[in-house]
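## retry 2 of 3
previous attempt timed out at serialization; input unchanged, resubmitting
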Amino acid sequence: MSQIANEINAEWLQKIKEKIEGLQYGTVQVTIHSGKIVQIDRTERTRFDKLSSRPLSAQNSYSVRQHK
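## retry succeeded, writing output
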């Protein structure tokens, strides 16, 4: 592999590392076309403590009972 190719790979690896750092829940997706990385996507999820919020179905059933 040439020095230029190594530098390009090092750049992409650094970008991927940056996307992963600090990610607690989510995905990092690398898109490759014709053997070359063309895109990096990061999707981050936020999780809520089960005790601090009720599920949507519990909220709906509560409001229905409240209106009876």
